[in-house]
Amino acid sequence: MVLSGDHPAYKALVDRYQYFVFTLAYRLTNSREDAEEIAQDVFVKAFRSLADFRYGAKFSTWLFTIAQNTGITHLRKKKLPVSSLDQEGTFIQVENHESDFKANQIEDKNRKQMVNQAIAMLSADDAQVITLFYKGEQTLDEIGQILGLEPNAVKVRLFRARQRLKEKMEKYFAEEVRTLTVQ
User: What pLDDT digit, counting tens, does each position of 93-113 carry?
Assistant: First the structure.
């Protein structure tokens, strides 16, 4: 249905992936306005290119590749510095539900914030590969397609990014990390 240009079906895909596409764009630009512009461009390009989509890859991989390329093109045009800062906490979703699990929710939120803060301290490349793998749930092959790298190169990048993330966590969140490992 979507491949035949069905607008409501495509809207469902946009709804499903808009948050993650925005997050990838924000990671590249560190600008909400630029990220919104890039995200909009990504979905327009994707819709216009639906006929080019091949079933050899997941739709999300294809879409994230478009997002990556659109973001880089946008940066080149504007000559903006690439950044991995997450000042607006784009991955953090605040839950305002009252329940018996409120303490767990607060603890969970604090963990997510801590991890996001540590990711924000990483280089743009490290933050990107961590984001794609853990939050985008992309495989090494899919990340390789998105970034134009061989899967083994992605595996090495991911390993090194994990090491640097661990170092940041231990350096800046030592007490929190200790309490997490004790539990």
Answer: 333 333 334 444 555 566 777
Residue-wise pLDDT for 113-142, tens only, equals: 778 888 888 888 898 898 888 888 888 998
Q: Which domain holds residue 58?
A: 1-83
Rounded Cα gap, residues 52 and 58, in angstroms:
13
Q: Which of 54, 83, 112 is the last residue of a domain?
A: 83
The Cα 38–Cα 75 span in angstroms is 10
Which residues have a Cβ under 8 Å from the Cβ of 155 and sit 6 or more positions away? 140
How far CA 140 is from CA of 15, 59, 61, 182, in Å, comes to 25, 15, 11, 31
Task: Evaluate whether residue 88 is within a structural domain.
Answer: no
Supply the CATH number for residue 20's domain. Answer: 1.10.1740.10
Place of tokens 């994990």: 162
pLDDT tens track for 132-168: 888 888 889 989 998 899 999 999 999 999 999 989 8
